[in-house]
């Protein structure tokens, strides 16, 4: 079967020269309406659309250059990696989409600006920055929508990290993935805030990829997810456009909890949330009863992320002194 992303790369590569040094940046993102479940695992084609907010200067700086030593070299946060590490082999496999068998040894250098203490995964920003850097290095003239389509092959959530701000990834329908890419919403919300409450910053128990596939394969609750998630995504998009923070927050929190419910029903169960995550949620819910306007969302890990508006920031940081606050529309 044809693959739209691979076709785009091979068409663009016809006019490409040898790789040159090129540096790119992509922000990480947090989904307010989650991507959970694939209809095609090799292309990372989702069963439902998703909507995220990008994390401004928290992301990945990636440089691609010809390797002078004549062999591939991958480094992450200043450390040259062994080729057997997961990061290095994934990055090179992705670069192979562009090299297509040509002998073009590359040096790939990535530096994440996401504080390690935040415990956020960086595959979204990592593959988005690598896509931008490879396209630049090979001087391909591709649009951002096309780069989003290509980044999807690395990791689904990377589809959304091509842009800043609020971003929607439409699930698309085409088998070759030609209509499954992300686009930004033309909405600026200067008072929008995100806080990361770190719970467990070590490596996660299961990758999001394994957790997602296992849930689709075994959870009797998963059947209810795709339609509900699609409706949540549409609703959240409408609330972002209206800047209705309360309705947006309530639905984003419900969407995240529903995603975690599908995992808990998987056989055997997957539980990314720990006692500490639940304790944070209890504290948040108690504070909300007393008027705090903040909502939670959680991904394939124990950390809790809060969304709120600028006027609630002091209350949030008093309640959670460990919170790391991000301003997505700064500057
Ligand atoms: C829970 O994008 O990491 O963070 O496509 O298999 O690489 P792959 O999965 P990944 O899954 C992210 C799942 C999530 C929700 C989200 O970001 O939408």
From TrEMBL:
InterPro entries: GHMP_kinase_C_sf, Mev_decarb, Mev_diP_decarb, MVD-like_N, Mvd1_C, Ribosomal_Su5_D2-typ_SF, Ribsml_uS5_D2-typ_fold_subgr. Its EC number is 4.1.1.33. It comes from the Bacteria. One of its GO terms (cellular component) is cytosol. Pfam families: MDD_C (PF18376), MVD-like_N (PF22700). The keyword Heme does not apply. It is an enzyme of class 4 (lyase). SUPFAM superfamilies: GHMP Kinase, C-terminal domain, Ribosomal protein S5 domain 2-like. Residues 26-182 form the Diphosphomevalonate decarboxylase-like N-terminal domain. GO terms for molecular function: ATP binding; diphosphomevalonate decarboxylase activity. Keywords: ATP-binding, Lipid biosynthesis, Lipid metabolism, Lyase, Nucleotide-binding. Signal peptide: none annotated. Residues 199-320 form the Mvd1 C-terminal domain. One of its GO terms (biological process) is isopentenyl diphosphate biosynthetic process, mevalonate pathway. Belongs to the diphosphomevalonate decarboxylase family. This is diphosphomevalonate decarboxylase. It comes from Cognatishimia activa.
């Amino acid at each position: 079967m044809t693959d739209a992303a691979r076709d785009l790369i091979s068409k663009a590569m016809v006019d490409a020269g040898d790789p040159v040094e090129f540096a790119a940046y992509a922000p990480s993102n947090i989904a307010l309406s989650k991507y959970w479940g694939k209809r095609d695992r090799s292309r990372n084609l989702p069963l439902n659309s998703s909507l995220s907010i990008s994390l401004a200067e928290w992301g990945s700086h990636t440089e691609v250059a010809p390797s002078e030593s004549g062999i591939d070299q991958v480094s992450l946060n200043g450390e040259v990696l062994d080729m057997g590490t997961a990061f290095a082999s994934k990055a090179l496999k992705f670069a192979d989409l562009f090299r297509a068998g040509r002998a073009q040894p590359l040096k790939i250098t990535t530096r994440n600006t996401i504080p390690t203490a935040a415990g956020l995964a960086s595959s979204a920003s990592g593959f988005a920055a690598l896509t931008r850097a490879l396209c630049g290095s090979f001087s391909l003239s591709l649009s951002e929508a096309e780069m989003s389509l290509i980044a999807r092959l690395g990791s689904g959530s990377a589809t959304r990290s091509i842009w800043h701000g609020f971003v929607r990834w439409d699930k698309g329908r085409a088998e070759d993935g030609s209509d499954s890419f992300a686009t930004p919403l033309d909405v600026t919300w200067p008072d929008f805030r995100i806080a990361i409450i770190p719970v467990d910053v070590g490596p996660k128990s299961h990758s999001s990829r394994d957790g997602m596939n296992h849930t689709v394969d075994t959870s009797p609750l998963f059947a209810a997810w795709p339609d509900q998630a699609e409706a949540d995504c549409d609703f959240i998009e409408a609330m972002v456009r209206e800047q209705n923070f309360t309705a947006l927050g309530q639905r984003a929190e419900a969407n995240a909890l529903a995603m975690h419910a599908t995992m808990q029903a998987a056989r055997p169960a997957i539980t990314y949330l720990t006692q500490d995550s639940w304790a944070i949620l209890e504290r948040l819910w108690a504070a909300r009863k007393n008027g705090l306007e903040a909502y939670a969302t959680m991904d394939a890990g124990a950390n809790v992320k809060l969304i709120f508006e600028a006027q609630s920031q002091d209350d949030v940081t008093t309640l959670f002194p460990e919170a790391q606050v991000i301003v997505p529309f700064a500057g």
